[in-house]
């Protein structure tokens, strides 16, 4: 419905929700040749994500330098704000990351892969480390401790939840964007999201 606002991205794939607003969207300058949605299992405890069709949107993009598989996702939130190994939400994150790991493993080993989105786990969490070790992915923001969730007076130091993970030999660098208020069409000032944006420049196959 907003195609006139994004003319530079003519190729679009989305996965909707059942009742609540949200979902996953991939916009591309290049053709999307394949796409599918993989839903996460409904694990305890009961939470709003049951209505959101949480999962992963797996798309193959035919770029000028060859095909790239992009796995766009949004994991369940940790409503305890506790990412220790013993927390009840840690098992949920591990289960959902396991689904992503199987999607990565199903891609041809020689194909470039990008896993991106709000993983709802900090960059230094044990489950993310397990996931990176299992899949061989690399975090292009590794070592960057800046929050990607917009700090609030009640939560002045949130973790970095948003990630761009790539499979070598792909490399890249990233920066945080959309951190400031913008002026809307009606003159109001607002932030675009409760998260910052993450902009990345990725190199599919480094020279040499």
From TrEMBL:
Q: Which domain of life is it from?
A: Bacteria
Every copy of the Endonuclease/exonuclease/phosphatase domain together lies at: 15-195
Per its UniProt record, what SUPFAM superfamilies does this chain match?
DNase I-like
Please name the Gene3D superfamilies in this protein's record: Endonuclease/exonuclease/phosphatase
Q: Which InterPro entries match?
A: Endo/exonu/phosph_ase_sf (IPR036691), Endo/exonuclease/phosphatase (IPR005135), Sph/SMPD2-like (IPR038772)
Protein name as it appears in the record: Endonuclease/exonuclease/phosphatase domain-containing protein
Which species is the source of this protein? Actinoplanes lobatus
